[in-house]
């Protein structure tokens, strides 16, 4: 499948129906959306870049996942004079290109009630200007590299302040290894015994704290299995971002095709009620 889809002329205005949410976002002052609310989001005409891996038998899941992706044929063939196909797919919510909803991690069960499940995330928080932080050189030299505050400051020194509502994308260069589990995540083993061998870059908790305290981003994504780096045992970056209802996108691809600034991201998950994660189709619109 080509990485760049054919050039298209996008509608100047995209109308998006917002879904109601059970809890207000601590990171935004906007009123709670109702089923009838709409918002207009303007996009420039431009080429589309698919940022999602296909789901198949090679899709990478977290080592402790009890169900990886499986596509089971119900019927494929001709019947009653026409062709018909039907399949059943199964898989854990955190695998392949997917979203971590804020409900995925919380400091307590009570705190989790204030954090969005997948279907509660307002659609306008899944669409916005893309900010691409290129740390490929650092991650090539150190597969356990954690993106630093200095990386964001260097980006801003060149491109200006990270805009409010930004969708921050961390390009570690890891997508080149997908779906080779050992090269991509440090091990091809499954189960708890695989966890100590995980090796891949992530976001340093200090940098997550800086983003939360100093910038107003809507979401953050990267081309590795987790926003926390491989050896993490406390998943601190997750736990810093999620109380602010900042969604996380993992196992992205084709980030090399995006400019540092100027693109727009649409990251729409399967709308699974009550879930802490879901398969994701992420698409960037180039300027």
UniProtKB/TrEMBL annotation:
One of its GO terms (biological process) is L-tryptophan catabolic process to kynurenine. It holds the Pfam family Cyclase. Keywords: Signal. The keyword Cytoplasm does not apply. SUPFAM superfamilies: Putative cyclase. One of its GO terms (molecular function) is arylformamidase activity. The keyword Signal applies. It comes from the Bacteria. PANTHER family: CYCLASE-LIKE PROTEIN 2. This is Cyclase.
